[in-house]
Amino acid sequence: MEELPKAYDPQGIEDRLYKEWEAKGHFHAKPDPKKKPYSIVIPPPNITGILHMGHALNDTLQDILIRFKRMQGFEAEWMPGTDHAGIATQNVVERKLAKEGKKRQDLGREKFIEEVWKWREEYGSTIIRQLKKLGCSCDWERTRFTMDEGLSDAVLDVFIKLYEKGLIYRGNYIINWCPRCQTALSDEESQHRDVDGMLYHIKYPIKAAKDSFVIVATTRPETMLGDVAIAVNPKDKRYKDLKGKAVMLPLVGRELKIIFDPIVDLKFGTGALKVTPAHDPVDFELGRKHNLEQINVMNDDASINSLGGDYEGLDRFEAREAILEDLKARGLFIKSEPHRHAVGHCYRCHTMVEPRLSPQWFVKMKPLAKPAIDAVKKGKIKFYPERWTKVYLDWMTNIRDWCISRQIWWGHRIPVYYCKGCKDGEGIIVSKAKPEKCPKCGSADIAQDPDVLDTWFSSWLWPFSTFGWPKETPELKYFYPTNALVTAQEIIFFWVARMIMAGIEFRGAIPFKDVYIHGTVRDITGTKMSKSLGNVIDPLDMIAKYGTDALRFSIISITAQGQDVFLSEGKFELGRNFANKLWNASRFILMNLKEDEVKADLCVFFKGAKLSLPDKWILSRFYSTLSYVTECLDEYKFNEAANSIYEFIWHEFCDWYIEIAKVTISEKSSQVILYKVLEKSLRMLHPIMPFVTDEIWRKLPREKTGADSIMIESWPHVQKEMISKDAESKMKELIEIIVAIRNIRSVWNIDPQTSVEAIMNVHEGGIEKLLRENEGFIKRTARVSSLKIGKISKPAGAAASVVGRVEIYIPLEGLIDLAKERTRLKKEEDRINHEIRSISARLKDKNFTLKAPKEVVEKQAARKDELVSQLEKLKSNLEQI
RNA sequence: GGACGCGUAGCUCAGUUGGUUAGAGCACUACCUUGACAUGGUAGGGGUCACAGGUUCGAGUCCUGUCGCGUCCACCA
């Protein structure tokens, strides 16, 4: 057979195989009534994205599922695509323009959008190429983009549907405003971070009362320019006298009402709250309740506007300083105290968010949330790990309306037109296309709403818009609902929850059955990997250095279900070494395989073959492993699947079976089993390590009429009748004996080349038979020249060891240090004594013998017998020294 | 303020529904370049399973509390 290179070198192999898979259409799936569908939609990466370890984990997991299901015979569709990422992409293109000294306003809206599309043409598919490097078997022919015609159409359709249903409205509310991106954000896009701020105590003079003040505490003194009232709790005795009075706003001179409202916390600050309805959500509510004026004192960039009087033009933080100075000058400033509190930050540029009154479009969420809550409560959608169910339900039951309009240019433009001929607020036309004239007044003076929709307003349709919705395509009918959604916890609210609502509302069915939430990839210190922190490990570097399979295997093997992953570069050696081990085992087998022997009908062979214990054992271990791995993959226990394959291939197949088979390798049964176990192991490992498995598989002798790649081969069938607990326990016993002999050799520094004589003192037929039948490989693997089995007493000057039913003697006349041997055996005796004591105590305890299951008690008793007999043997050995 | 996760070998982590002697990888020690593999082999050392109670015949595993670390959510200005 063909000889393989000495070490596995992924360079060259990976790209070659990937191109071939793709060219042959192995990734493509289409509706096939004869097969069951299995589908996953990718969490679409941003077009600005570059592959990071989070993707490496996320997309490897999905690829494992898809490859596994494809092999199991499902029509497996992995729908890929990218997200236009409104704010993020606009920022990137604006930065590019800035380098040329231009602003987007210089270009104008149309030209700017053209620039973004150009940028997208050039860089937007970087991430797709990188996913290919990862080995992802996505159905690239179907690749979608959230700004594609069809998907954009779906977005407009959904907007109109919700508007007509009364679930979309426009209103002037406090929203999260990013002064840098100059747009509104949803609550989810405003990320709370603890900030060390100050709480400033300021005197507000009471009107017409000399030298009396109300002291308020605020963290944002600059907003006082928009104050319209002071609120106190009606129960607050300190402020009883304020009834019927008014307060003068310092620096501005406006008269402020005093209002009484239980929302004010008596314990916080001074118990008096300055009310700024245009700049704070609580104040906004107070303002509505008490009919207060709303004074917005800021521009879009958070500088003070003309309503801010002398402070106009100052940035919010400059204004804060200036106002504090002026207050000090007038003796109205009392003190500032350090105050740590959570403040919202823009999730795109991390600028401090300014809560601010602004007219925006909103989606009413409560009606959408209700069926989405039920779907999860009834178990139609399951979260893995299960604990995320609670997180989802808590959020959903407290859901608030979704601000969906953004004051940027890149995105789906809101399909709303305003007629200037109609009275303010009445000439709203919601329509996909621009109307010629206003249906109400006939005016042609119509302008579209300048805003675009939140990026997530297209993402939430992803599981069905990608399959062609609102058109009733065959793909949509066949592949929807999808089977699994694999994503990170950060995105549960942004995306997962909203997809569930959208799926039920627009498609009338849940979008996926399982949601697998994996952990966050962190660096070795536990910090989230991010480019700005400079602690990233670039997956592409790791692929170049260790290979894709190594990257995939390593990250999977160290990621327990739903736990965060702590990565360091050294961890990729695990996967690289494993790929190399597999490569070399295959290399050995291929060097020795006689093609004719293994091309014969294997089923016929197994019917007639008399298998040796190691043969039965390795087959049993393989099918046990296969059965467990299948179960693990179905339950999203990827690490357990990976680790049990590793354990099987390395420590059972390579360490034992191949070593044992070296003697019998030219025999038919060894040939067949080596081939069969290797070939099936490759299939079992393929979803996790797609490249090395296919490369080796192609070199195996096989019927050329079959599949041309392991990726479209079938998942091995678990042959239960091959699983033999008897073979497994017998083999375990022999392995223990071999290890004991090796141990003696090692302890007495016997040269690895030197063969020794070994004596097995046995008093029972079963074990004697077992030893005799397997004498060959025992001698070989333990380097024993002659093996005597029977009732044989210990020769003088022999080292001894007791394993289960066997006493092992290795005659080492003259080589043994008797004192050292005594200590060694004594240590062993102590260990056994200790265990006997503990088991005896248990067996004497009636509570145990009566209450524990019979099996457990029997097992303990048997264990005790074994230990006692071992102890006797040890003692007699000790006496003979 | 609420919710969740984690604390197991020097390091990074597994540990199924409670049941013999708690595992792996890396690191460490000794020996080995043996015809698959030094990205390797053989043997070995190393753990009061954070702490304190409780349930149980039996707890790393279940319950309560404490301490430490981390994450998410939240309108104390």
Overview of this structure, please?
This protein is of the alpha/beta class. It is 44% helix and 18% strand. It has 30 helices and 29 strands. The strands form ten sheets. The chain has a four-stranded antiparallel β-sheet. Strands 10-11-9-12 form a four-stranded mixed β-sheet, covered by helices on one side. Strand 1 (37-41), helix 2 and strand 2 (75-79) form a beta-alpha-beta unit. Helix 18 (572-592) runs parallel beside helix 22. It is elongated and about 115 Å long. It binds one RNA strand of 77 nucleotides through strand 8, strand 12, helix 8, helix 11 and helix 18.
Shape: elongated
Determine Rg (CA atoms, Å): 37 Å
Give the mean pLDDT.
Answer: 89
Discrete helix count: 30
Fraction of helical residues: 40-55%
How much beta, percentage-wise?
15-25%
Euclidean distance between termini CA atoms? 54 Å
Low-confidence segments, given as residue ranges, are none
Q: Largest beta sheet: what is the strand line-up?
A: 6-5-14-16
Structural class call reads alpha/beta
